[in-house]
Amino acid sequence: MRIYKRKGSPNWWATWNDQNGKRHRRSSGTEDQKLAEALVAQWVQDDFFEEHFGKKPDLPFGDALVHYAKAQKRDHPRHFMSRTRYRLKFLAERFKGLNVSDFTFGFVQAFVDERLETVSSGMALKDVAYIKAIINKARREGRTDFVPNFPRIAASKPRSRWLTHDEEERLVLAAADHLKPLIRIAVDTGGRRSELLGLDWRHVELDARRIVFVGTKNGEDRTVRLCERAVDTLTKMGPKNSGPVFTYNGKSIKCVKVGFGRACERAGIEDLRFHDLRHTFASRLVQSGVPLYEIMHLTGHKSLAMVQRYAHLAPDFQERAIKALDSHWHDLGTVGKNDNAGEAAKALKVVVPMRGLEPRTYALRMRCSTS
């Protein structure tokens, strides 16, 4: 083992050979000679334990976080720049100097309890999800053998605020001129804030009445058909061959929080966020009778679970279900009346033969291992 200075570097460097004779060279990252010697001694010891006992050395959480951040920036650049990097910066500062093996159940539970004193359960869930993703990535890469056991956090009730037509008109009238078309398109397309602010005229096809959100939160492109009002709104904005659609003084809009908040205040609208315009889009579709499966694809959600919050808005869905049952029993004969009881029973025997078991559906046959 030897430490030395390299030309052009203020830090101490080290070189040593492992048990197989392989040479290692690494920067200590410090100008302190004593600290550099201690670090190198630890590296040599870690190599020995891994070679002879199969024990991987403790992995600094900061190193695992950097590897995760690089992958996220490469695979999801837009979402990384708008959100992920800020959460990772918070975690890097919060857990500075800790190793991955420090994230025991009790340690993470204490962190969650601390966070819940100042933030919502949803935010705490996101923090824990990032920690899990960072450690799991390091384990998949073979950089640690640590398998943490994370505490469960009860998710808060999903937010389901949306605009009435009257509120929408008041909001548009109260909004600054550069926000008016943005609000209209948000309500008419269900686009996320990042998708709308990143929308380019190259991906607006007015003749085909559609727009394409590129590189969405899910990492996929999403095409949304435009209603007449959306086409009219975009046409009045003056379409271009390329460039950002939503601008202020000729430059792309980066943030709407302040302007949107002031518009809500002037319009007398309370408890409304920009993301609620997306909820408005989905809720209006449900109220018009559009199936949840179709809404899932229009909004870009990955599962029906994300759009189930709108199910209760479907017009008269319980009434339709009950009428379907009434129609079913009417076709078979009214059950419960003495004069038709015998005929109804005969009809049921024809539909379901009395063999002791209900006939299996196709889905059940596919699930049954004996079929």
Short description:
50% of the residues lie in helices and 8% in strands. The chain is mainly α and 371 residues long. It has 4 domains: 2-53; 61-140; 165-313, Orthogonal Bundle (hpI Integrase, Chain A); 325-367, no CATH class.
Question: What does this molecule look like?
Answer:
This protein has 371 residues and is mainly alpha-helical. The protein folds into 4 domains: 2-53; 61-140; 165-313, hpI Integrase, Chain A (Orthogonal Bundle), CATH 1.10.443.10; 325-367, no CATH class. The strands form 3 sheets. A 3-stranded antiparallel sheet has the order 1-2-3, with helices on one face. It is elongated and about 80 Å long. The longest helix has 21 residues, at 33-53. Helices cover 50% and strands 8% of the residues. α2 packs antiparallel against α3, α4 runs antiparallel to α5 and α7 (180-189) runs antiparallel to α9.
